[in-house]
């Protein structure tokens, strides 16, 4: 019945740097945790050690323990620890504490069942009573006790990082008496100070302490943890005396490079509700997280962290200049297309104007709103946990509900992210529609455009992006969690998980990169067809003089690349993990795509014959102002004689002359 279970275990310990391998403990292969639980209640002193040892062996692979295994092992531990004089049986005591230590390595999800609450509460209560008579240390739990002397005024329990052997991380435990207060030694992980106000007249009082290296036996229904930071739990118990309260100081270990402590709460485990409570506790903070409480049992500090966001600079110079020029170019292109619409087909005008309009709005929002306003608050905020406060306060010691605190809500940033998402998707959708139109005009030249073409294209170009944005918001913004949809560093779609790795579950992938990749793939296919079958196709019927020049073909190719947004494919190359390569593609992406609006203006407006004509008219009027002056002139007349068979033109000077002739600018029709 114990198949796939370790048949024996051996404890490897050390003295200094010398490892010591203790004798093996053999498992009775006919026992399991359920059968041991049935035996332990009636077991006598001669069999308790065997039951404790078998329980330790059966829990020696914590990752395989189920909720039922944990419940059975905890019940066995409680029954053994409540046996009279159990502390005198060192083998049984050590095996039971080792079992509790192994339970603390089990999967945390197995502790989340409500059925375990009463079991774990019974176990921790029993551990407090047991701490008065034993000194046992295991990897995840330590039990320490000392006699309470008649002259003792304070008792301090310390758990310090032992730096003697840096390659063997360990914790050094120490109990001190009659000390003035808590220590300021930064190597101290946790400390608890009992202030004794009266001792019993006898000399048999004792003080006991229990230190848990994580909080798996203290599952809260109120406080939820999303991070994998272990919370140390410490308890003090006194027999034969009374205390005026306790002081506790924690020096928690967490990843300070990515997280910053936002708040903390001093709590104790209230067995009346089987959950954390702040009643009778005050908090303070300097280099430690300090607490003062009226109780002496199972203290912890609940912490709430905030991610240290690396707020991006608003925009680099390349982006500023490129986007600014694009805004100007797109504005010129839109106005030119509208005011000259009578000279061109309406469908072509509408398609290009729609593309330019969506790109223009995106660029305006991007350059004015991409920066998160919290970036400025973050740089100027010196309140709260950026300042150290060593004054105890009860008013701010409120029970926390989570170990993660979202940054201040920024509704404006959310609106900007939604608008950027919509208009950039609309821009790509209009590139695809322009691609489809070019296909119909250039590759299906003998067939007319479909009926209601403009209405259909408008519904697709503006409607599909709206559907995608709406679905994305509905799927990610549940419960008002803005950071499920957008990033905090700047106002754009969320892309990274908690470990700062790109995640396919985030909207950046499935609501932007994926649909844009499909659009770009479609555009590239159409682009290749147009280039091969239209622009670069050799026409043998044309003479050498009529053949298009190389530069004309290149210009046509570049024009198609720009209007179809082919250069946005560089953005996918930026995902390459190699830093130097990614940096090169980043610069290329910024240069080509920040100036896309300017490129459209140059290729589709400035090079247009109509635009050149209008510019010539404006400059011709402005360069030669209307003015009058006098000069000597001769007038010639051209006449034609009409012989019977031939026309003959003659050119002769006129005999008339004028000394005062007004000369003004030539009419535009000349």
TrEMBL record:
Annotated spans, Disordered: 647-670
- Using the UniProt record, give the first listed, main subcellular location: membrane
Q: Has the keyword Transmembrane helix been applied to this entry?
A: yes
Q: Which PROSITE patterns match?
A: G_PROTEIN_RECEP_F1_2, G_PROTEIN_RECEP_F2_4, GAIN_B
Disulfide bond keyword on record: yes
Q: Please give the InterPro entries that the UniProt record associates with this protein.
A: ADGR_G7 (IPR053066), GAIN_B (IPR057244), GAIN_dom_sf (IPR046338), GPCR_2-like_7TM (IPR017981), GPCR_2_secretin-like (IPR000832), GPCR_Rhodpsn_7TM (IPR017452), GPR128_7tmB2 (IPR047938), GPR128_GAIN_subdom_A (IPR053985)
SMART domains (alphabetical): GPS
**Which Pfam families does the UniProt record give?**
7tm_2, GPR128_GAIN_subdom_B, GPR128_GAIN_subdomA, GPS
Please state what the protein is called: AGRG7 protein
Q: Which organism is it from?
A: Penelope pileata
**Source species taxonomy:** Eukaryota, Metazoa, Chordata, Craniata, Vertebrata
């Amino acid at each position: 019945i114990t198949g796939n279970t370790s048949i024996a275990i051996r404890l490897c310990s050390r003295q200094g740097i010398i490892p010591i391998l203790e004798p093996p403990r053999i498992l009775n292969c006919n026992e399991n945790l359920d059968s041991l639980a049935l035996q332990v209640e009636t077991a006598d002193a001669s069999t308790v050690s065997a039951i404790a040892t078998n329980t330790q062996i059966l829990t020696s692979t914590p990752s395989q323990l189920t909720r039922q295994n944990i419940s059975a092992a905890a019940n066995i531990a409680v029954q053994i620890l409540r046996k009279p004089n159990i502390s005198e049986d060192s083998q049984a005591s050590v095996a039971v504490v080792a079992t509790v230590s192994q339970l603390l390595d089990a999967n945390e999800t197995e502790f989340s069942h409500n059925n375990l609450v009463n079991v774990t509460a019974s176990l921790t209560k029993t551990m407090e009573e047991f701490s008065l008579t034993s000194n046992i240390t295991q990897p995840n739990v330590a039990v320490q006790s000392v006699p309470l002397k008649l002259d003792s005024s304070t008792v301090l329990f310390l758990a310090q990082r032992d730096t003697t052997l840096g390659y063997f991380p360990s914790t050094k435990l120490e109990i001190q008496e009659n000390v003035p207060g808590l220590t300021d030694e930064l190597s101290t992980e946790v400390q608890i100070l009992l202030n004794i106000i009266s001792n019993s007249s006898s000399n048999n009082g004792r003080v006991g302490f229990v230190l848990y290296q994580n909080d798996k036996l203290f599952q809260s229904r109120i406080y939820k943890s999303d991070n994998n930071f272990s919370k140390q739990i410490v308890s003090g118990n006194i027999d034969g005396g009374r205390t005026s309260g306790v002081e506790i100081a924690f020096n928690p270990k967490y990843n300070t490079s990515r997280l910053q402590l936002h708040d903390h709460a001093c709590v104790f485990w209230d067995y009346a509700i089987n959950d954390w409570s702040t009643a009778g506790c005050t908090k303070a903070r300097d280099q430690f997280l300090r607490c003062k409480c009226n109780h002496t049992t199972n203290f912890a500090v609940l912490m709430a962290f905030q991610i240290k966001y690396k707020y991006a600079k608003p925009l680099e110079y390349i982006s500023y200049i490129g986007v600014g020029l694009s805004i100007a170019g797109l504005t010129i292109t839109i106005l030119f297309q509208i005011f000259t619409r009578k000279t061109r087909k309406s469908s072509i005008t509408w398609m290009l104007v729609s593309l330019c309009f969506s790109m223009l709005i995106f660029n305006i929002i991007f350059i004015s709103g991409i920066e998160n306003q919290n970036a400025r608050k973050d740089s100027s905020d010196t309140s709260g946990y950026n300042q150290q406060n060593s004054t105890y306060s009860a008013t701010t010691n409120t029970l926390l509900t989570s170990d993660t605190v979202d940054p201040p809500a920024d509704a404006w940033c959310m609106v900007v992210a939604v608008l950027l998402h919509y208009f950039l998707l609309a821009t790509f959708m209009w590139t695809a529609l322009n691609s489809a139109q070019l296909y119909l005009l250039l590759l299906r030249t003998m067939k007319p455009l479909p009926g209601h073409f403009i209405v259909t294209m408008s519904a697709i170009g503006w409607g599909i992006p709206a559907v995608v944005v709406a679905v994305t918001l509905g799927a990610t913004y549940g419960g008002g969690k803005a950071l499920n949809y957008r990033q905090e560093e700047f106002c754009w779609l969320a892309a990274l998980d908690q470990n700062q790795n790109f995640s396919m579950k985030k909207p950046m992938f499935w609501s932007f990169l994926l649909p844009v990749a499909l659009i770009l793939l479609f555009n590239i296919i159409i682009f290749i067809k147009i280039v091969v079958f239209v622009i670069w196709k050799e026409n043998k019927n044309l003479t050498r003089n009529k053949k298009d020049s190389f530069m004309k073909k290149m210009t046509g190719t570049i024009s198609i690349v720009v209007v179809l947004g082919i250069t946005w494919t560089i953005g996918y190359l930026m995902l390459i993990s190699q830093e130097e390569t990614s940096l090169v593609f980043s610069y290329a992406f910024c240069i080509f795509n920040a100036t896309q609006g300017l490129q459209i203006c140059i290729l589709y407006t400035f090079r247009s014959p109509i635009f050149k004509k209008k510019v010539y008219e404006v400059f011709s009027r402005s360069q030669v102002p209307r003015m009058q002056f006098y000069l000597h002139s001769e007038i010639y007349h051209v006449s034609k004689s009409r012989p019977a068979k031939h026309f003959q033109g003659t050119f002769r000077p006129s005999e008339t002359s004028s000394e005062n002739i007004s000369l003004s600018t030539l009419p535009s029709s000349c």
